[in-house]
Amino acid sequence: MNVLLVYAHPEPKSLNGSLKDFAVKRLEAAGHQVQVSDLYAMDWKASLDADDSPGRPTDARFDPSLDSKRAFEEGRQSQDIALEQEKLLWADALILQFPLWWFSMPAILKGWVERVYAYGFAYGVGEHSDARWGDRYGEGTLAGKRAMLIVTAGGWESHYSPRGINGPIDDLLFPIQHGVLFYPGFDVLPPFVIYRTSRMDEAKFTTTCDALGQRLDDLGRTAPIPFRPQNAGAYDIPQLTLRPEIASDQSGFAAHVGEAERDEPGVRAPSAKARAV
Known about the structure:
alpha/beta, two-stranded antiparallel ribbon
């Protein structure tokens, strides 16, 4: 497989840096081709602005979406954006690795998404009608590829449990996994989350690497999270709300995750243990 690892941590000697180095070595040892986008080392520009659309009229009002669309269609994107898009098209699997800062990804990684996910590349694709509302949420430019998060968190695992003070980890990661990854078509694997990072000793690091190594070994065969595809019948279009008979006893994020055995024959749902790793 071709694997793109997008890495967002400013300190190479950090836990994240060690895990990134381990992941690359493990993947390459298994025969995968790996590219790493180390955003801090690249001095990645995080802000989406008019400079991302070279050649646009300087006296025109900047429209982030429409200027992104025109630059993509006309081949006028800034080079750093175009190179990252090429990596995404090359990759069979994408790994986003980051520390959980203030309940989300670091700003530099959010900026990577905002700039690389151009209109016409990651969104705004496909037919918009009464029958379909674009190729997204299970379809799109990046459909058929796999994606996984590697996330470090300072808090205890119990802090991110269903009744934990920080909220369930599945809810915190939902906007990234369902929005950033499933939206343009990725099959999203259960995340690999490391808790209590300030208490990482040599023994815990060894067991963490063992578990991460197994997840990387299984990258091509782990069952994805069974998010409900937008255009497969579960949603009324164009309202894009779940049909009344679908998950009628649920609301919020959980309603958009089906049970693979029932909703998608032939796809195995991840076990509770796998979801908790």
